[in-house]
Amino acid sequence: MSLAHPMQKIQDWVTQQWVIFFGRKIDIKNDNWLMGPFGNLKVIDKNYIDQLAKLENLIIDTTSEIYGLIPVMSQLLLSPHEYARLSPKVIDFYEQTTRYELNFSVKWNSFFKVFGLLLKKLFSARLNQLNIPNYDIQSPESISSEIVRLLDAKTNQIKYVFWLRTITSTDEGIYSGAYGICQLPCGTSCIKAVFPLPHGNATVIMTPKVGVNGELILNSSGQKFGDAGFYFLLKDAKGQHWSKYIRSFRDELIINETDKQLTAKQTLTLWNLNVLKFNYEMFQKQ
Which run of H or E residues covers position 246? Predict the structure, then answer.
């Protein structure tokens, strides 16, 4: 029987052992579409990114102040009709994300608040990762965001684009994720967000489509391994890789331009029940 790394927090070991027991072994070559950066046992922050750059012989890009989560939106391979309908402001946000400031509010389903508190105490606050406030935020709060691009030292090609987000008023980290585009085994191009965790990561893969009003709709709904959705990945004590597809957990993000204002609504569901909702406002920096 395969075992997770023994020298770590017991809650991390139990979670990883659950992935091994109920998940599947994966091949990093055949399943390359799923792979992303793994975390260590420390806080996921800028220091982690510096360590990752040294480990994988990458260069932190300092050549420009304007970075986007996606170099060009055409990489999503939307149909010409969809791309022509997509809001130019949405395209600009993804291609030049550093030009924008963000506000957000949070609304929990009361039933799931206790699970959010448990997640925060066991994992999120310690790792500074997936650290969602476990209380409602009704008046929009400012989010500080920073994008760090890591380049291959030999080819100068982009390897990872990290998006770091913190609550401005408390300086509390929320997310530290690597964003990019992947192609599912079926050939569909999707947006992928990878959140490093100890000896592994949590990965969300979202299928894009364009709504009737030019909004970008990203949805992680899928049915099986190889579809869009939520995945846990890890490397065990012997260096083997494992993944567990969480079909019941889904994420929908809708980015919309209304009256020249860019907004987004994100809804997380579990077993088709709303867990929490985010509302975002995005403003171009002056």
Answer: strand 241-246
Q: How far is CA 254 from the centre of its chain?
A: 15
Q: Where are the domains of the chain?
A: 26-195+204-221+248-284
100 contacts 68 by C-beta, under 8 angstroms? no
Residues 6+ apart with CB under 8 A from 168: 141, 142, 143, 144
Measuring CA to CA, how many Å separate 236 from each of 20, 21, 200, 276?
8, 12, 9, 32
Sign of CA dihedral 66, 72, 78, 80: positive
- The pLDDT score that the predictor gives to residue 176 is 92
State the Cα–Cα distance between residues 110 and 128, nearest whole angstrom.
23
Cβ(101)–Cβ(141) below 8 Å? no
Closest to 39 (Cα-Cα) out of 164, 190, 195: 195
Rounded distance, CA 100 to CA 70, Å?
14
Find the angle CA(24)-CA(130)-CA(218) to the nearest 5 degrees.
Answer: 75
Token pair, residue 116, equals 């959010």
Residue 166's nearest CA partner among 102, 110, 218, 115 is 102
- Which pLDDT score, from 0 to 100, does residue 160 have? 96
In angstroms, the CA 119 to CA 63 distance is 38
206 bridge partner residues: 191
- The CATH code of domain 26-195+204-221+248-284 reads 2.40.128
pLDDT of residue 23: 96
What pLDDT sits at residue 99? Answer: 94
Segments of the chain scoring below 50 in pLDDT: none
| Among candidate residues 187, 186, 154, 195, the one with its CA nearest the CA of residue 76 | 187
pTM reported for the whole predicted model: 0.94
